[in-house]
Amino acid sequence: MKCCASCFDDRGLRKEIIPLHSKETGGCSYCGTQNVNLVEPRALADYFELVLGIYRPAKNGRLLVEWLKDDWAMFSHPAMDLAHCKELLGDILNDGEIVRATFAPSELSQTDRLVRWEKLRQELMYENRFFPQAQIDVERLEVLLSLLILDADEIPVTWYRARIQDGDAAYQIEQMGAPPKEVAPHGRANPAGIPYLYLGSLDTTAIAEVRPYPGEVVCVADFTIANDLKIVDLRNPRKQVSPFLLSDEHEIALLRGDIGFLEQLGNELTRPILPRGAAIGYIPSQYLGEFVKKCGYNGVIYRSSVSDGMNLALFHPSRATIGSVKRYSIIRVSVDVKDFPSKD
Fold first, then answer.
1. Does residue 293 share a domain with residue 161?
2. Do 19 and 132 have their domain in common?
3. Residue 303 placed within a domain
4. I need a labelling partner for 183 at 20 to 30 A (CA). Which of 110, 151, 309, 343 fits?
5. Tens of pLDDT along 33-64?
6. pLDDT tens across 156-205, in order?
7. Is residue 160 domain-shared with residue 226, that is, in the same domain?
8. Which helix (H) or strand (E) holds 51?
9. Quick check: is 173 in a domain?
10. Which of 68, 85, 105 is the last residue of a domain?
11. Residues 121, 259 share a domain
12. E strands along the chain, which residues?
């Protein structure tokens, strides 16, 4: 019986650990994926034992595979149902009983970083903009961001920027870049006067982000970004980080406690903000964007709240090269709704 990276869907196992230990390719015995690097489950025992060390036996706890699913977004392959997950984990640990026992996380994984961020967020918006009293552990945040850096092969080469056409003439290439600093408005990641280049990974993503109306014409430019950029990915921190790349149980426990904090930072960049409230609503995400830039990174990727695909806030627009401009006529705009929660 051999397993593969697709069984786990963990970035560290996929990109480093399994290729290091694999001696053959073929079909996976557990998830059925074909033509992949294969390893003996026992070859992963040391890595899993270290990660599972942050969980303690608990009578009213949960199964280890359930913790791995929820805490680290593992076992997302359609074939990896609960039975297959327990079978694979039991083979890795060479213990069929431990996968049936219940556990709870150790106290080491409890942090207050999310609470401290919320205090800072509220103060930045409504009390003290430049010299807030609330503070977060910026040294720890810098460490956490370093775990979310994308490799070059994970970043699309081509990106898109859209502008709603104003008048009959299409925008020229020189009009499709970031605005001049003198007129740059505030955005999700940039304060006013500090222009970033906002790009979508799909042309439809870029179009949706400018919120056009049916009948309007949108100009879309394609951009090629440099292949040496250091980009932070805040779309899904729980899937992006890998506990298997850490060598200390205490570090793994802290990371588990900090994932919710990272997810909230990603939500700041994705959160829908009405135009009338953008001047205040964007302040927390602008703080985050400025901090990411201060740490030496070139941009931040975040989810789109209005379409498929993803968005990139590029801190230095000169690192993108524009290609050509195409025009699109907007035919229909779809709307999704949900019940507004009652205050009763």
1. yes
2. no
3. yes
4. 309
5. 999 999 999 999 999 999 999 999 999 999 99
6. 999 999 999 998 999 999 999 999 999 999 999 999 999 999 999 999 99
7. yes
8. helix 45-52
9. yes
10. 105
11. yes
12. 24-26, 36-38, 55-63, 102-105, 158-164, 197-200, 217-225, 231-233, 299-303, 310-314, 320-329
Length of the chain: 344
Domain that residue 137 falls in: 115-329
Phi, psi of 57 (to 5 degrees): -55, 135
At 322, the amino acid letter reads I
Whole-structure pTM value: 0.92
| Short-list 25, 27, 5, CA closest to 15 | 5
pLDDT 10s digits, 289-330: 999 999 999 999 999 988 889 999 999 999 999 999 999 999
Strand ordering across the sheet containing 320-329: 231-233, 299-303, 310-314, 197-200, 158-164, 217-225, 320-329
Task: Extract the tokens encoding 213.
Answer: 């109306």
Say whether both 135 and 159 belong to one domain: yes
Structure tokens at 272: 């829908």
What does the alpha-carbon distance between residue 9 and residue 3 come to, in Å, rounded to a whole number?
12
State which of 74, 105, 136 marks the end of a domain.
105
Residues 285 and 175 in one domain: yes
Provide the 10 A C-beta neighbour count for residue 125: 16
Instruction: Report the alpha-carbon distance of residue 231 to residue 293 in Å, rounded.
Output: 10
DSSP code for 274: -
Q: How high is the pLDDT of residue 306?
A: 87
